[in-house]
Amino acid sequence: MIYTVTVNPSIDYIVKVEDLKLGDLNRMKADYKLPGGKGINVSRVLKQLQVENTATGFLGGFTGDFINNQLLKEGIHTHFTAIEDDTRINIKLKHGEETEINGLGPAITEAEKAKFFEWLQVIQAEDIIILSGSVPPALGNHFYEEVITRCNEKNAEFMIDTTGQELLAALEHQPILVKPNHHELAELFETTFTKKEEIIPYGQKLLALGAKHVIVSMAGDGAFYSSMIRSTLRKR
């Protein structure tokens, strides 16, 4: 089974206005709500590709109920750990440009965290755990490391899409795949990229540090893929 883990999901509330006037009354042209979070997005794409998976993480309040119900309507299996605090709402305001206002991550208690790890005991050898997205401050700096340790104990594989020290700490455990974007990769190695080709050696550094496969996304400019066998720069 493939399990996606989204520890800081959201309702993405998209609002369209014709002409935004700050400090004045504005009326919506349209609005809609979607389940948000990188791991949840992975679950939705996998389902569209007819790959069965289970979406997991933490959900709370009426916002958490909305996300869980929407995923179930799409035929996605879910097993989220219930929390007392409300899952956040992220606002995406479209007015020619897009302005984003991201909500704060919820408070997650030690007891709620323990319930998640109690459930995680269901994973088995050959399962794949996909860790994706930011970790709310309430879970501390080593949450993903703890999940990876449980994966190792069960001989399960994992993929990770995160940044900074969490990504570096994961590499020694040989993830199947890591997927930073080019900004995150530059920040990780304290450098800057002026040409796409400059990304290649830094993607290969992630392989040397333990990753089995690397995808570096570059927004509208495509992506770079590398493994121990081949490297490809795919342009859009």
Automatic annotation (TrEMBL):
InterPro entries: PfkB_dom, Ribokinase-like, Tagatose/fructose_Pkinase. GO terms for cellular component: cytosol. One of its GO terms (biological process) is carbohydrate catabolic process. The keyword Hydrolase does not apply. CDD domains: FruK_PfkB_like. One of its GO terms (molecular function) is ATP binding. Keywords: ATP-binding, Kinase, Nucleotide-binding, Transferase. Residues 11-227 form the Carbohydrate kinase PfkB domain. Belongs to the carbohydrate kinase PfkB family. This is Fructose-1-phosphate kinase. It comes from Listeria grayi FSL F6-1183.
